[in-house]
Each structure stands twice: as structure tokens, then as C-alpha cells.
Amino acid sequence: MARKLGQLETAALAYVQMRNLRTVKTGDLVAALRITPKQERELLSRMARAGMIANVRKGLYLFPSKLPLGGVWTPDEATAVNALMADKQARYQVTGPNAFNRYGYDDQIPSRIFIYNDALSGERSVGSVRMTLIKVGPDRLGDTEQMEMPSGERVIYSSRVRTLVDGVYDWARFDSLPRGYDWIRREIEAGRVAPANLVKAAIAYGNMGTIRRIGALLETIGVEESVLRQLKKKLTSSTAKIPLVPRRPVRGVLMKPWGVVLND
Predict the structure, then answer these.
(1) Which of 46, 111, 43, 100 lies closest to 77, judged by CA?
(2) What is the value of pTM for the model shown?
(3) Alpha helix ranges (H) inside 19-108
């Protein structure tokens, strides 16, 4: 059954659609609808509770381009992410399980969106869209692709090669090892990812553990020494051994000079 809209709800939706707005801040509707600040707060709160609009943060609301039949709406993932990031003027890129699924590495559809960004951290929800926000330094943002969603919104993802590096770098957060090594092997064998590009991304966006693990893996699959040499130049002197697969016993063949034990 269609929800019956009140006079103020109808006026608010009409105003926003006429102005081609997607977000409204507290205070934006006072003059337009000739209401008091208290009436506006109550109106926006009522519409959010009813599922007509979505709360991005306190005082900022996301409106539909058109309220669907039934009067209940929730933003799609791209619209929700872009609204939150635009509000903070943040750089961002979707990563982790969402990117794993996007590129066909994993067929599991995540229940939330994992986002590297330079402004926010923690858990957020916009409508029914749940987000895990991972604040990183500006130097860890980059190597991205823009994806156009069915809604027409564009969302920024880590690139195919960057996603593979993220899987090794952020293995604890994404639970992506040892699966990530299989993804790398398959991508290289299929010619979708060049080892040199993977090395470049590992140097730019990884840490020493990432460089050592990817270097050891690439050596086991026979990547040319000229490519491996770029990673070896970044190695620091250390006698510490690390496992190829974290959280497993450090037993197996030691790969020199990476200091990585092949325990997979």
C-alpha cells in the first residue's frame, strides 16, 4: 500500500526534486517551505524514520530523485558512499571483499562496503547501506578505476592489480590469505595482470611484509629476475623470518633473500 504523504513531506520532496538536489542540510528547507527550524527538524526526522530519506550524518540527509511506489526508499551503495565522501571532501576507494567480488576473485557478496579514505574511520550506515571506513594516509590512496553503477552513479574502486596488493597487505582485516596468492597466480597466468605492474603497486602501496611475501610468491612462479630485482631493491636488512601464510606455523622452505618461509 502506498504511503500517504503529508503536506510538508510532499512540499519537501517537490522542492528537492525541482532543484535537482540529492542532499539537504539542516536549515536548507526553512525559507523554501516557510517553516520554523523546529518544524524542519521534526520534518526531516519524521521522513528519515519513515524511510523516505536517508540520514548521512547528523544534519545531513539524502533524498531520492523520485520516491518509489510505497513511499519507502533506500539509496544504492554508490549514492550512499558518494554522499558521505562528498560531505567530507574525502578521497576514497572501495577495496577488500567488494573489490574481490567485483573482479571475480571471490563469488561471495559482502554485506557491507569496505572503503579506504582520508577522512573517516569506523562503522557507518546510510539507509540500509553499511560501510566499514578505513582511514589511511594520502600515500595509500591511488591506482583506482571508476565503475558506473546501474543507477548511473560512479564509484571509485581499487584497480584490479591494486586489489591484489590490498589482499596481501590487509590480509588480517579481509581474511584474504592464502586465497590471495591463488588470485595472483591465476591473474598472471591469464595475462590480466603483468608481474611488473603488480611489483609497482606493491612498492607504492604495500609495506615490507607485502613486498617480501609478493616477492617470494613471484619467484616461486618463475617471474623474471629483472622484475624481482625491483622488489629486492626495497628490502631492508633483517634476520626475522615471516610465514608466507600468516597464522600458520613457520615451518617450510626458507626463500632467500625474502626471509619468507613457504608454509602454504
Answers:
(1) 111
(2) 0.92
(3) 30-33, 37-49, 77-87, 96-102
Positions of the chain with pLDDT lower than 50, given as ranges:
1
DSSP letters along 214-240, please?
A: HHHHHHHTT--HHHHHHHHTT------
Instruction: Tell me: do 67 and 87 sit in the same domain.
Output: no
User: Helices 7-18 and 37-49, interaxial angle, to 10°?
Assistant: 90
Identity of the residue numbered 79: T
Residue finishing a domain among 158, 191, 212:
158
Give the Cα separation of 261 and 254 in Å (integer). Answer: 4
What is the reported pLDDT for 71?
84
According to the model, what pLDDT value does residue 5 have? 82
Indicate if 146 and 225 belong to the same structural domain: no
**Does residue 249 lie within any of the structural domains?**
yes
Helix (H, G, I), strand (E, B) or coil at 155: strand
Radius of gyration of the chain (CA): 23
